[in-house]
User: Fold this.
Amino acid sequence: MSLESKKKILVVDDDADFVESVSLFLEHNNFTVLKARDGSQGLKVARMEKPDLILMDVMMNERTEGFFTVQEMRRTPELAATPIFILSALYETQAGFRVKPQSSWLAHDEFIAKPVDMQALLEKIRARLGARQAAAFPAEGA
Amino acid sequence: MKILKLPKNKLDFFTSVVQQFGEVHAPVEQNGQFAFQPVRRWSEVRLDYNRTILPPKKYFLPPRETLLQYAGDAGYVPVMEGLDKKIVLFGVHACDVYGLNLLDLVFAGAYRDPYYQARRRNTAIIGIECTPDEHCFCRSMRADFVEQGFDLFFFDIGDYYFTLVGTALGDDMVLATGPLFEPVSHQDVEEYKRRSALKREAFRLHVEIRDLPEIFEMEYSSDIWQGLGERCLSCGACSMVCPTCYCYEVADEVQLGSREGPRARTWDSCLFATHAMVAGGENFRKTRPSRVKFRFYHKQRGFVAEYGRPGCVGCGRCIVACPVKIDVVEVLNQLRSVQNVASR
Assistant:
């Protein structure tokens, strides 16, 4: 069993089909997947399970729900450093809202536009968790 | 002053983005009343609120705070943790902004309170226009509009919020939200003026504050104070909910067997029986009439003498909170012998 299989990823999204497909993909790549259908459930699961990484939708019950949930997670000490990837189509559907999270106003770690390129997502997840792993267990003599 | 407009249907996006300037707190409903709380989702926010139970004062002068930690060997060490927390207070009414401006005179004027000042520095204020209800008399107290004390101020003009940018921080917020804001047109200005006039007409309570300190001087021995004292329960609710009541008690919280502990500051009220008690047991205001009278005199006369304006903003919280229905507007108009306050 690889180290990767021990990593838990929380998917917060109200699109059941998307959750299902991304879960299957991540499980196939040796991740444990936790699921939540909205921000408040995501917050509860995250506080309880302390995932290694969170994939967060934005438009759920409310169109800015993901933004507020990310901030709430950042205010939660045990989740303050957990990597959060925003997965959203908001910037395509809301033409008037052109303030993209790449401009760093949101306390997230990555922004990935929907529709999601699964392979690219996997690489970003591996890069993020791998980097964390390296930081947590520095090589002997480093 | 820079003036812009924000589409109402973009307010949730705006609030999402201003979270980078601090934890956003706004009025949310609690059992039919309202309170400033951290915003967990946009739908919780109630910008149509009439008044919050406690004013924004609670952010700058908390009901209880530890000022110092004392220990046998270390002596007294100031406790400054948490003072640098960034907060964006969203949806503050003009009367409450005015109240904070008055508190600034007390805590950031001749005598500077570092705890208050640090919180003030780290808290952004976004104001919002409101509609007066049956307890509002802020217009009489000149607190229905503020020229300063906010970073941004929103006025409802239909599909948009007419937005005054009050500070550089407010301007940074506008810039951070990219193209959400739009320039105002002549029509927008006309609509702002129309609604401003309508709001002036909407006030049902009126108090004339000109020469009020002098009338207080003349009525020092009035029977009104005895009557009020007999009704007043000295519960202090009016002080707790007042945006400008700032009296506090400071005490070392000593525990048996311990050589260390906190020195805490807690809200106090001039209506409490012990407020004017000093060492030896002497109490300068033993009776309820003397205490209720003191409160009125400090607000309407003492504050004017010290700072040039009354220490009341006309928010109506004390009217709502008083369990025996002491109504400040009624009292002030009784002093003037003005019977009808609602029909003018």
Remarks:
- The mean pLDDT of chain A is 87.
- The radius of gyration of chain A is 15 Å.
